[in-house]
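Colleagues,

For the teaching module next term, I've prepared a clean inverse folding example: a structure given as tokens, and then the sequence designed for it. I'd like students to try predicting residues themselves before seeing the answer, so please don't circulate the second half yet.
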């Protein structure tokens, strides 16, 4: 994991579509807003708690922001925090790791494990 990565929480169906199609156009909220919402590692738990509360069978994809180039814009959102927003589909080849959403003992969402 590096500073050049961000995370996308996906439902099982969305994760399956990303794997099968090789890209992900976005969740309903992404399509409505015109970009794919991503989170930094420090924003990941709050995003899960706020937008996915009570949902099960979720997955986390770690995304290489450098691979997406200028399609990523850092824009203010929740409380003025800057969030990475992807203007375009998420290609599977920009995903460096993914797996089921797991939480540490303290409740924080863990990034997916690679290798």
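(Answer key — instructors only)
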């Amino acid at each position: 994991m590096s500073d050049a990565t961000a995370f996308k929480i996906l439902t099982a169906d969305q994760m399956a579509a990303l794997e099968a199609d090789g890209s992900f156009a976005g969740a309903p909220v992404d399509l409505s807003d015109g970009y794919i919402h991503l989170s930094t590692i420090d924003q990941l738990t709050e995003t899960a708690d706020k937008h996915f509360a009570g949902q099960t069978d979720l997955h986390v994809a770690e995304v290489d922001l450098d691979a997406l180039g200028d399609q990523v814009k850092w824009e203010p959102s929740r409380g003025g925090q800057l969030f990475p927003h992807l203007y375009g589909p998420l290609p599977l080849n920009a995903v460096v790791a993914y797996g089921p959403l797991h939480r540490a003992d303290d409740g924080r969402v863990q990034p997916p494990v690679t290798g």
